[in-house]
Batch of 4 targets.
Target 1
Amino acid sequence: MGKILIIGGTTEGRAAVEVCEEAGKPFLYSTLGTSQEIALHHGTRLEGPLDADAMTSLCRREEVSVLVDAAHPFATIVHRNVAKAASEVALPTVRYERAFPPLPEGALSVSSFPEAMKELERLAPRRLLALTGVKSIAAMGDYPLRHEVWLRVMPIPETERIISESDFPRNRLIYYDREQDDRALMERLRPDLLLLKESGESSGFEEKVKAATALGIPILVIRRPTLGYRPTETVLGPVGLRRALERLDPDFFPLRIGFTTGTTATAATTAALLALLNDETYAEVPVRLLTGEEIRFPISETCIESEECATATAIKYSGDDPDVTSGTTILSTVRLTDSHTGVTFYGGKGVGRITLPGIGLPIGDPAINPGPRQMMTEAVGRLVDLSRVGIDITITVPEGETLAPHTFNPRLGVVDGISILGTTGVLRPFSTEAWVDSIRREMGVSRSVFGEHLVINSGGKSERWLRAHFPDLPPNAFVQYGNFIGRCLEMARSMDFAHITLGIMIGKAVKLAEGQLDTHSKKSVMSKPFIRSLGRESGLDEATLDRIDGITMAGEIWEILPDHAHPFYHILLDRCYAVCKPLVPGIRLDLILIDKEGGLIERNAEDKNKRNHV
């Protein structure tokens, strides 16, 4: 079995490690220095320089199957070595690229450090602030000895080694301090010029530019060099990397991820509008997920019907999730109109229609959920000015009416078709034993890498809110249980976690409180009589209890009982605790109920009566 080799030492390298850890199989992580703090569970850390020959030998010796280049965009020698090693061993390569915002208007830009030095001699700033890193000392030559140059550096051993071998004035070094933002530094120094490398979003390029622009400080940017080779695939985030590795080494991950109907519809919408604007069709288009990551999505067909209307088709790919919509054809018809501005959505054949409250959409609307609407609106808004242009988007699913009875839609009052869904845009296969195994592996990483506090949650949306609530916890402390709350708690107990925080949204909470430890809709359903009994216990009057009888989804309870301090929520959390606690005796268990907007209600195990409403 081959291994994945990641060339890292960067933010992207760290993200690539997190992706590969999900596989539960050995991989290699190579960094030039030792300064990056990262703990590996299934990976092996390699430290020190790898020239092309050494990298080639490593790939042969370890039977590397895919080479992931996550090195810094300015690491030109490293990229050259990756290209040579991949060529010698005939390996596919994946470039994990950063997102690069456009260069600021009015900024001077040059293509290299030598050009930057010539420009500095010409401009002759009285005081220069360079945010280009310690390795730029060599490129500056004697310039810092002849001019006032302030250089920000990282407080790591490699920095001290380079400084000790140079004549750079130590009293003009600024050690990076995460507590001091860029603007505060610039306000203190008041430089005449800011020197930057075009190093991408993950290095804080935009924040530095915004701070300088706000203070009226001119900017000189060294543009990023070209990669120097053509990778097999280029990705911009963890989802793209996961899909690339699934394609290039199909045996590495036990399960394949997929994409939602919302992502598929967004791809088709993007392709249709691009066809209208450019009078050409596309085999694939960019789609920005709700996490902000951009992926490429294949398009199967596009038809330009007129100057104002085009239809594009994309195929739903579900990976290994047992989804009845897998392989379904989804069409988007985009029509330019002057009858309104902005976006109007319509449901074509096979897209359901809302007939009951509680979905979060008006009765009579097409069942295109808020997440996909946001994705499609933002996608077309990046191509046209929606304050001046009107766009009608009609989503059609030819097989939707046939598929609908096999979904949850009939219970939700969605008729005549399926829903266009998606909260993150990505499908992770919750409903298989292999997914439980992947939870076990993630928890193993969390226990060995981080320690004793585990935060478990149902999915991407709740995890984002919990990460914001626990800003000091590392990413490894958070594990998604999907629908397997009971199995997850049992595994946590076997791994000797001392403290577990369970984050849960109300739809799963009302099932868990009744004793249903597997909360998948195919195995458990919301019991309105049970919810009514909780309401009666919390002191609700009959009129309010009758309103609860009329709900379609548990999320409607927040609208009926908007006060987070209401006893209903305390009783609900107490019932959930009573169901879960026997599975984790001797372990501190805290519960957090999460509302639709990310508001939290906490049940603190150390003080049962303490309730935090944030």
Target 2
Amino acid sequence: MQDIQEQTDPGYKWRAMFVVSVGVFMATLDGSIVNIALPTLTEYFKTDISTIVWVILSYMLTITALLLTLGRLSDMYGKKPVFAGGIAIFTIGSALCSFSTSEMELIAFRMVQGVGA
């Protein structure tokens, strides 16, 4: 069915590329934009920079640790469902980050984002 849709709809590939590009852009932006907020986060949570830097590290380490595993899952179950699940987990992680009340919660929720990214 999907092959038929791709053959009959010439804009399918462009829409797919757009959706994937937006997802990659958001994950990349989220991975780097937190750097700017580190001094503010340090003041807000009343902690030191060596603790708050784990907000970045937890996100990047989670992505790195799960990259091959999630790639294999996408080979087994299909790229579209794994991508959609990743976007959903990333969005949930982003929402949870906005409600975090401590630096440890923020670090844990950034790990949730990393799973989805």
Target 3
Amino acid sequence: MTGSIDTRVSLAKDQKTAPTTLFELASDPSALVRAAVAARPDAPAEALRPLARDRDRNVREVVAKNPASSQGNLLRLLGDADRWVRWAVAANPSVDARIRHVMANAQDKELRGLAAEMTLLEPDLAALLIKDASPEVRERLASHTTDPDVIVALLRDRTVRVRKGLAVNRWTSAEQRHQLAQDSSPDVRAVLVRALELAEEDLQDLLDDRSVDVRRSMATSSVVPEHIRQELENDADESVAEDARRYRGESKPAQDKPAQNKPAPETAATPRAGHRRAVSTRFPGKPTR
């Protein structure tokens, strides 16, 4: 094919270019031209097949992302020597059950993690990933799954990292969030109060949490109700109280603040009575009912 590289790239992108020409461009000396062919959603299978074996990594990655790629090409690319090519397959909307099965059983931990994040994950594959040797894979499953049975199973996981994944999962039920609010790990509880809305009873119990980090997370959480934050303004730990007061000041609408040219109306300074109950000696995250 004659002409400059730019000319050939333009030809490869042109919707009017004939399939026979695209097939010819698929073997172009320039990787830029081959990548342009590989990116076409209407690229003929005859052109994509050799590009899935292309010597240039970027070209193979483009094929991996192309919805027009056949399942055979995608399965081949899952075994590619380059990790970025393998991982690109997960973003392809044409991924089917066969490909998810290969991903969930792959030696590549990242491929298993990408499978764990898929909303269409089959129950048998989810059951497999619940027992994955990698805490990272189980955490990614925990944070993305919509399956109630999977959530129940992962609530029993002994690894804190996995339960932290559940603490950001919006598909958890009120009862499951209640369990997480009682989790033995302050890291789980801190993540939970930042990510998910909780029942009033759980919030009231967490006001007494033994972990300063949990209470500080509540003080600056956008999902914590204002009346809870107001109680934290009187927390026994000054860092918690200061965080709560600072958050209120930063989130207050500008129109509610007094105009700079007008003095704020004077009000009698009334000391606020402390509302926080004394820190109990109960186990962290295990409120007394």
Target 4
Amino acid sequence: MEKIIKQENELNSSIDEIKEYRKELDVTYSTLVSKSTQLEYTNSLLEKRVRNLSNLNHISRVALSMFNIDKIVDTLADAYFVLTATTRISIYLWEGEKLVNKKIKGSIDFTESFSYPMYLLEKFTNEDYSKIYSDLSRKITILNDEKVIITPLKVKERQLGVILLVQNKDQLLEINNEMISALGIQASIAIDNAMNYAELLEKERISQELELASSIQKQILPKGFERIKGLDIATHFSPAKEVGGDYYDLSLKNNNLSVTIADVSGKGVPAAFLMALSRSMLKTINYVSNYTPAEELDLFNKIVYPDITEDMFITVMNAEYNLDTSLFTYSSAGHNPLVIYKKENDTIDLYGTKGVAIGFIENYNYKENSFELKNGDIIVFYTDGIIECENKNRKLFGTQRLLDIVYRNKNLSAKELKGKILEAIKNFREDYEQTDDITFVILKSVK
């Protein structure tokens, strides 16, 4: 009996061991199943990342090969829809002072643009731009289960715009956010490249137009006036930029030589445009009338005044020399006085008349003076580009220096005197940049 009981106890003990072993097997199995599931999930994520990286690489190459911003924006919008959980998208880009909506995809009813003064934009920090983008995102109507993701577009410190993405909250997974961030970086680079390319093309176009304008401006300068009856003449025109606001003109009618020099306020294209208009008007007035220099300025001012803006004006020295009588008559509209050397008494001085610049007062009667030009006398018309020429020490060339140069070289020809003036300007300025147009006309009586 005892033997049977002992065997029964041993059997029960073996059964308990088997149960414990089974439990261990169950735990091991569960662990293996769990690890297998995790491994499958991890593999799935890795496969998705690999696919996304491959797609991202393809989209990047496509976008970077484009230089049309609208096409780039279309490509990026499609990419966000395909590679992320985006259901709606709105893309804004900066165009100067404006934040302009360039693309919407999905049901977004807000597409307004915004303007900010440039002086404010120049002071904006990244935090200021973030606030603008955040305020903009709140204007998009979303459902309770949706969220707007703000993706700023920038390269270094250059703000390009913002992409606003609408997605379901439960789809905002880590891998989704990675793709959104990666696409944002690629989008910024592609858009920045396209903007730089567009700016380069625009600069080239403007440069070509300025070269053409400069060529035209030089072509319309009078030619063939180096020597006429009793006068030795030299002229010079060098704009500070491709085109300038200075001009001079000479014309001969009924044995009267008309000489005009003018300076339009400002520089570059606007000044050159007003210069061309002014030249045409004065030339026409001179051609169709027998007015004196002062009367020509009276009429010119009346014509120009209604159309000239408050921030622009024209200074003019208008003169006429009669080849038969040697009478020289001049009138100034706010222009620099003439430098006149008179050989008879060996004196040099400034001669001008009182008169406001063209465009200041609507009805203004300009004054004029006259004198007989005698053999050896010299007259220099000039614009303020000479006397206001600066050197590296910010000192001005000045009127007295011009007077001294003319007096010291009074016995030279007009062409030689021109060379001396240019040489003095060059030596004075040295390597300092020319900041204003330099224009002058020299008349020397050689009877």
